[in-house]
Amino acid sequence: MLVDLIAGARPNFIKIAPIIEAIQEEQKNGTDIEYRLIHTGQHYDKLLSSAFFEQLGIPEPYVNLHAKGETQAELTAAIMHRYEQVLQTRRPDLALVVGDVTSTMACAITAKKMNNIPLAHVEAGIRSGDLTMPEEINRIVTDAITDFFFTTTNTANENLIHIGVPEQRIFFVGNTMIDTLLKQMPRFKKPALWEQYNLAPQQYIVTTLHRPSNVDDPQKLKSLVEAIIQGANGLPIIFPAHPRTMKAFDKINVSAENLHVIEPLGYLEFNYLVKQAKIVVTDSGGITEETTVMKVPCMTLRDNTERPETYTIGTSMLLGTSPSAIQPAFDKLYRGEWKKGEVPELWDGHTAKRIVHILKNLF
Ligand code: UDP
């Protein structure tokens, strides 16, 4: 059995690493399962791509498509065109896509249109209901043509049933991003900036913002960052900025002695910081899952989330995107009233094994 594993962007690498490892385990046990890791090239910056291959021990991809595009359509087209050429050289028995990035959707469509290659989607069924998010469109389109749905939560299962997916095609397996988190936790690495900025456990804040709705208008970013600075009340703010966010920072004038805007960190360094942070302020999806598992308080600066468990069960508060919501949340934190949170079902570090076991029995 040949499986194509598709990965193109930072969160994809984190989600695919344990699946590769689980396949390698199966191979050692003599199972007839082969894989081709297809890197679409969507993220090409070393800090968002090869650094993750190194730290997470991901093997060299079978191919890097080096697909580029300035716009969503250009990128989608480039990925589809190049992946189709790979499929023409050898047809896999299954294409497996993860998450919700452009590569996920583009490769799903390409495989499905190539004579109906069976398609599996890991992290299927989550929905924000917000069609202004490119990721929501990627989720909807991918799930519309997926054959095997691997889900992280019961909410995702219900969403899929609601759109008519037969129950026997839905596999509630948990979260591969958390597999990586739990596996790598003993290797988390203190970054050099710890000493440089004089950090101490629970005495600093970690911030990441990269959603177009928060960073594409530089004034919006400025007002959010100013509110975080005010709420931080002098605590150091470590802000590893996505390239998209860095561009917006170049256009605004916002500075404070305790604000440290830095390049994206490696996975091991970033999560070292998150694990000991007083609070994380973010608009990321994956980070809210990680803070939930590490039980670190988290403010989610979004109007909605496709991961409701991070605030219904976990440690997040869904604050919206108005800067005025930030200070009251800090006040709650300082009063010691932040909820403790629980870990969602099956986020236990064994998800990838479950996925590969299921696949093995399906083919
Ligand atoms: N991350 C990282 N370094 C950073 C910022 C984030 O390693 O400087 C990791 C983080 O731990 C999480 C993933 O990147 O696993 C989240 O990616 P991102 O926020 O880009 O994507 P989203 O989850 O919002 O799709």
From TrEMBL:
InterPro entries: UDP_GlcNAc_Epimerase_2_dom, WecB-like. Residues 28-360 form the UDP-N-acetylglucosamine 2-epimerase domain. GO terms for molecular function: isomerase activity. Keywords: Isomerase. Pfam families: Epimerase_2 (PF02350). It comes from the Bacteria. Belongs to the UDP-N-acetylglucosamine 2-epimerase family. This is UDP-N-acetylglucosamine 2-epimerase (Non-hydrolyzing). It comes from Taibaiella soli. The lineage of its organism: Bacteria, Pseudomonadati, Bacteroidota, Chitinophagia, Chitinophagales.
